[in-house]
Amino acid sequence: MHQRSTEATAKDVASIAIIVIAFIDKIEYSKQKTSYQKSVLDRYDDFFATMQNPMSRPFVPKKTAILKAHGRIAVYFKESMKKFMESQTFIREEEDAVVFSVDYTQPLEVLPFIKEWLPDMEILEPKELREMLINE
Q: What span, in angstroms and rounded, lies between the C-alpha atoms of 97 and 22?
């Protein structure tokens, strides 16, 4: 279901922003002549520490989606359960439902996750994201 990439090498500085990678534990400076300057890699430290999936975009302001898990899937989103996404934050439990939030940099980062849980997942906010899901 989820892909894991543990290592990546980029050929030029411009391409580093579009490389699709996930689950990087550490960035180290290489002594090879073809490597990046340490200052370039340092810009990505925070991004790699907080990215949620390969669709996360660096240097893009994050938006927050408020989601509601209903019925049979609600149990998986309770406060005591393991998070599906790094930014997932429990908000409240309702009768037969759990409301929580996730941050994202582009709709493609969260829409596939939401679709996996349909029809028991609902987008409460933002309206634009909800409409995008309906129109797909």
A: 30
Give the residue from 106, 124, 28 showing the smallest Cα distance to 68. Answer: 124
Return the structure tokens found at 72: 């049979």
Q: Which two tokens stand for residue 40?
A: 């370039």
The whole-angstrom distance between residue 108's C-alpha and the CA centroid of its chain comes to: 9
Per-10-residue mean pLDDT for the chain, 136 residues long?
41 48 64 68 72 77 95 95 92 96 92 94 96 92
CA triplet 51, 52, 53: central angle to 5 degrees? Answer: 105
Question: Which residues lie closer than 8 Å to 63 by C-beta, 6 or more apart?
Answer: 103, 104, 105, 126, 129
Q: State the sign of the Cα–Cα–Cα–Cα dihedral 30, 34, 37, 43.
A: negative
Q: What separation, in Å, do the N-terminal and C-terminal C-alpha atoms of the chain show?
A: 21
Describe the strand order of the beta sheet including 121-125 as a list of residue ranges. 89-94, 97-104, 63-70, 121-125
CB-based contact 100:90 (threshold 8 Å): yes
My answer on whether omega of the bond before 54 falls inside 30° of 0, hence cis, is no
Peptide bond between residue 126 and the one before it cis (omega within 30 degrees of 0): yes
